[in-house]
Amino acid sequence: MEEADHTPLVRGPTQFDEFYLAEYQAVVALTVGLAGNRCAAEDIAQEAFLRAYRDWQKVGDLDSPQAWVRRVAINLATSRWRRLRAEATALLHVGRTPNAREHLPPEDKIFWDEVEKLPKRQAQALALRYIGDLSVREIARVMEIAEGTVRALLHQGRTRLKRQLVMKGLVD
Amino acid sequence: MDFEQKAERAGASVRTVAQRSRPPTFESFQQIKKPWRGGATLGLAAFMVTLIILGGVAAWRSAVPPQEQVLADPVPGGLADPVPGGPVDSASDGLADPELGGPVDSMWDGLADPPSPGGLYIFYAGSLMPMDSTELPAASVAAIEVIVVDVHPSIPNTVDGEFPPIDMSGSFDQLRGLHPLTQVEVQIVDVLGGRLDSSVGDRVVITIGGGLITTTLTPQEAKVLGIEGAQINDDAPPPPHDHDPDAEPTPEPEIDPNASVLLSIGLPPSVRLTEGDTVVLFVVQRERQIYNSTEARSVLEITHPVGVFREDAQGWASDFGESNGYVDVRALAALIKP
User: Fold this and answer.
1) Which of A17, A118, B89, B187 could form a disulfide with A122 if both were Cys (CB 3.0 to 4.6 A apart)?
2) By CA distance, what is B268's nearest residue in A?
3) Hey, how many other C-beta atoms are within 10 angstroms of the C-beta on B64?
4) Could you tell me the pTM of the whole model?
5) Average pLDDT of chain B?
6) Which residues contact B167 (CB under 8 A, 6 or more apart)?
7) What are B217's strand-pairing partners?
8) In whole angstroms, what is the distance from residue B283 CA to residue B151 CA?
9) Is 0.85 exceeded by the ipTM?
10) Residues of B in contact with A52 (CB under 8 A)
């Protein structure tokens, strides 16, 4: 597939609140895709923004604070013990833990459930590609890896994922 | 449908779901930026139920009379959905009604939550939501002033109170229905409103959702949960690679097959109540479903996280209200139907 070459991860607003408002839902989307549980996903997204807030003097001066906060969020979302703690916190304070993917069409839920089973880096790359709608170059920037590595991760992830989805009869 | 079409559609679906998430209010950042205590502060601030009273006494005193409005699913120690039958987590489900009038959060003008008629706010999933002050007495059977006599160790809401066995197939779902419960023995000092089978001087046991439960996992169990080598507790510092994207990722820890892993869920009950506390509790008698069982037990519980109030020099403050405001709980208690 031809990768889009748009560049949404350009230097954005320097005020934290503007940055936060502009990016929050996009980051939550990434964490929902990777963490599933909505409360945990929001918690993780908020933690990522909190870290940006605390270090805003530094983060705000980066070429792409958007990439920085996405990197922190996907690292948090795929760190299983962090997720466990976030979900445990959600259990305590919420009483029940709505799974964000329950709101998805069944086939899309299965898709992201299968993504979650992939190796961490492949799952991150796929989430950035299909949820974040990022190009290979942008994914490489977020993950701080070479573009060739991104292509390899996407290829490996797609191959494994497609195999699972074909077995479930969801794709041709 | 080919794979790319499927993937694009699945991604778009997630983006749509995420659009229901509202950014948390500025308070969460204000709170957590003060004393940073690792992830604990964030977890606590983002998910702890916080009652914020912006209008103060004047606002709720002018509130409308009690309505026939019942909290849909009041989870003690957790958060109820203030909209009967409404989804617990939707920000667009009617919780936020800008037509209600009342104080506005001036700290976060661009994100100001819709005002609450009673001046009551709860924190849910990092968002500030308005709450009608009449909801609390409407959902309660009684309001009692009590002295806390004993706070029992917290237990999971399992049939036997023991931590459930870990599903070794690798599923993470076995923890989803697990809640810490803490039983608190209190002596009734005064019945401020409503009716209770017990009377002044009696000791009653009240179940409060929340608390701290710990268990020791085998390395294999921990591996199933994806927490091998990690001690899960709220004071654990974040891994360096999580905190600083520039740092090298932390290597996966070596697994000692003879080691055990401590799993802690929740917060100590003392966060809410300790022995000797004098508090006012809004309570309800409820059938509580037990984890992994069709069995239910009848328990006396606090109605809602905002059902615990403690007195200080300035009046009756909510348990988590900190310095944000105060309410006259006796007037609220008088609204409970006998």
Assistant:
1) A118
2) A92
3) 10
4) 0.39
5) 59
6) B173, B174, B224
7) B261
8) 17
9) no
10) none
Distance, in Å, from the CA atom of A77 to the CA atom of A80, rounded to the nearest integer, reads 7
Site of tokens 């020791």: B216
Q: Is A63 on the interface with B (CB under 8 A)?
A: no
Q: What are phi and psi of B215, to 5 degrees?
A: -150, 160
- At A30-67, the pLDDT tens digits run 888 887 666 667 777 877 887 787 777 788 888 888 89
The SS3 of residue B34 is coil
Q: Which tokens hold the place of B188?
A: 């009734």
Partners of B110 on chain A (C-beta within 8 Å) are 17, 21
Alpha helices in chain B (DSSP H): 3-18, 26-32, 39-47, 56-61, 135-139, 219-225, 240-243, 329-334
At a CB cut-off of 8 Å and minimum separation 6, what does B117 contact? B59, B63, B64, B100, B101, B102, B130, B132, B133
Q: B87 near B93, Cβ under 8 Å? A: yes
Could you tell me the pLDDT band of residue A99, with boundaries at 50, 70 and 90?
A: low
Instruction: Give dist(CA A45, CA B301) in Å, integer.
Output: 32
A149: pLDDT strictly greater than 70 = yes
Instruction: Count other Cβ atoms within 10 Å, centred on residue B239.
Output: 18
A72 to B18: CB separation less than 8 angstroms, yes or no: no
CB contact under 8 A, A38 and B21: yes
